[in-house]
Amino acid sequence: MSQEKNLKINTDDSEGSYEPHTPGGHAADASQPTMPVYHRQYGNPAPLGLLAYGTVFLAASLFNINARGIHNGSLVLLFAMFYGGIMQTLVGMWEMFLGNTFGATVFATYGGFNMSYGALYLPGVGVQALYTDANGVLSPDFEQAVGIYLLIWDVITLLFLIGCLRSSAPVVWTFGTTVVALTLLAANSFTGIQSLAVAGGVFGLCAAAGAYYAALAGFYSPTVTFKWIKLPPMSLAYSEV
């Protein structure tokens, strides 16, 4: 006999209800047990991207100001290619998945910038070889081309600066100082004046500091560190309050 035939209807008017019951007197429930609902949580990839951004600028800027008397800054290629390039590109993809178009565009763009900057000086890529004559002398055109290259990224950064004016003070500071740094470095490539490279390095250090602050404000929380270790995000978002 089917389950439906074993059910009886409670028609007690005093209770004013019509509820099916099993032969044992229990309320009938033919529904399937519900599956537990899991709400997937996603982390915030922005601090990783900001740390990568700041670290590349920190390394490059230290070499630009000739820290410790070092004049060969080739080591910065490691930061640019593997940390700045790869990590920021991945962060850009993750931001796109999370629906943050601005963050995805910024991080993926700077990931490409870092990898292309690294490739510019890698012998295996051969860009410098194209500007070298038969005697191994580097053509003056190379520095002029690098200046144009930096100016193009300077314009892109300026566009990002305009687009982030209502985000937070550290982010605006980071993009603003990056614009100045790239302008000075491009001018150094055009003119060969070393003091411009040093000035660009100083502003690059300021950009790195802003990126680090924005990153730490994003992941310093009571779940990972002490409550009193907290950086205010300094949001510039519009509020009617």
Gyration radius over CA: 30 Å
Q: What is the helix content?
A: 55-70%
The share of residues in extended strands comes to under 5%
Order of helices and strands: HEEHHHHHHH
Low-confidence stretches: 1-14
H/I helix tally: 8
Describe the sheet with the most strands.
Answer: 2 strands, antiparallel
Q: What is the spatial order of strands in the main beta sheet? A: 1-2
Number of folding domains? 1
DSSP strand count: 2
Q: Which structural class fits the helix and strand makeup? A: mainly alpha
Global shape: elongated
Average per-residue pLDDT, rounded, comes to 86
Distance N to C terminus: 67 Å
Care to describe what's here?
- The chain has 241 residues and is an all-alpha fold.
- It has one domain.
- Helix content is 59%, strand content 2%.
- The chain contains eight helices and two strands, in the order H-E-E-H-H-H-H-H-H-H.
- Strands 1-2 form a two-stranded antiparallel ribbon.
- Strand 1 and strand 2 form a beta hairpin.
- Helix 2 runs antiparallel to helix 8 and helix 6 packs antiparallel against helix 7.
- The longest helix is centred in the last third of the chain and has 26 residues.
- The N terminus is likely disordered.
